[in-house]
Amino acid sequence: EEHNIDWYKNQAKLWKAELKKNPKNENGWLYYYTACRMVWVLNGWKDSDRAEINEILKTIAQKIPDTFIYNYINAYDIGSMKPEESYSFLNKAYEIQPDNVMLFDKLVSRFEIKQNLEKRKEINTKWFQSGTYSTGILNYNYNVLSSLAPNAILFTFGDNDTYPVLMIQDALNYRTDVVCINTSLAKIGAYRNEIFKKLAIVLSEPE
Percent helix, strand and coil across the chain, each rounded to 5? Predict the structure, then answer.
């Protein structure tokens, strides 16, 4: 569901008050962080909004260290643009709750960047078998894959056109001849290098 910025500001206020009563409430910290992050995004990425997020990160390190939510929030906050730093938190969260579907998209991104197709398949199979992914989105992307020529290259951009394609390839072993390239992840050098290697692309030296 999408909400306006005032809704998220109110949620942040309510969860902040709730956490004063019970600072060990892991889900409370997740909801508070999420609300504050949405305020930050919808308000144009202002430093003043980011400051509250930074305070949350400091506080959870004190109140709920070494928990699933502590590691999950840090992994999410760092994001895929700093994959090694993010993965240290993500891996710890996975060790604590290996069947938590909240982790699966980030793990798939991690293994896609590294082109570790065996681990990507392992996570995508668990994700598919969990039954939590949208059937409609899976069906749409199944049709996209079905329409492609053999050994096609498919450029994707976001979540809804990347994760389901990789899931269908890994969990259903369907259209594995297609190479999916996410243009957002292509900003990461390690990912580009792995894709270029797979496709035998050699960049020419600048003149």
Answer: 65, 5, 30
Residue-wise pLDDT for 82-112, tens only, equals 778 889 999 999 999 999 999 999 999 999 9
Beta bridge partners of residue 203, listed in sequence order: none
- Is the sign of the CA dihedral 71, 121, 147, 182 positive or negative? positive
DSSP letter string, 99-142: T-GGGHHHHHHHHHHHT-HHHHHHHHHHHHHTT-S-HHHHHHHH
- Rounded to whole angstroms, the Cα distance separating 38 from 191 reads 28
pLDDT tens track for 17-37: 999 999 999 999 999 999 999
The whole-model pTM stands at: 0.84
Task: Report angle CA 138, 164, 113 to the nearest 5 degrees.
Answer: 180
